[in-house]
Prior knowledge:
- This protein is an all-alpha fold.
- Helix content is 62%, strand content 2%.
- It has a two-stranded antiparallel ribbon.
- Helix 2 packs across helix 7.
Amino acid sequence: MKTVIQDFENRVREIELYFDFLQDIIINKAELFFPLKKGRKNKLIELELTKILRANGFLLLYNLVESSIKKSIEEIYNSLNKENANYKDVKQEIKKKWIELKYKNFKPDTYVTEEIFKCISNIENDIISMTFSSKKVISGNIDSRKIRDFSESYGFSCKTHYTTKNGEKLLVVKSKRNDLAHGDISFSECGKDYTIEDLVAIKKQVISYMRGIMKNVNRYIDNKKFLLAS
């Protein structure tokens, strides 16, 4: 999980660099300078371009959120798999997930009675080994509600500092990212509705919330909270 957290912080630094640049352009009225062109005056950065740059901030933030959640859950699976734990030794959340993944076709109309009995009899000795299929459950779909769903599914805490307001701004980030990715709106249309102050406030909340979630997952893994004995 240390590698996952380090990757998160690296991405945060990228975002901070971008937002510092954005603030220089919008707030400090930065201009383009062309040192290799003699007699060329500085060029003002057009308002339309600043709208596009503001919209791009949503893509950077969503990339941070989706990547961090994906890698965190993969780390949960990796840590769980290393334990070679039996079904009977893991907590209820993991038992449900195991049944969901391994016995997804466990239906009376497709199993004869003897096969059903055999599965039920042997399930306690099943070695838990799972692979996370991120494309099915993550792509373009991460907001605070989805993170709470993951929290309930695996048993890690989704509680963060009250100032994060439970990551409510993630919904805006997800929605704008999807609008841009699917071509529903242009970058200029997306950026025109948000001031740099709006974006900075969204950025701060998203980063703070995600940092809290990452700490919770790290604590969950370190303490092996997926096991009954933990």
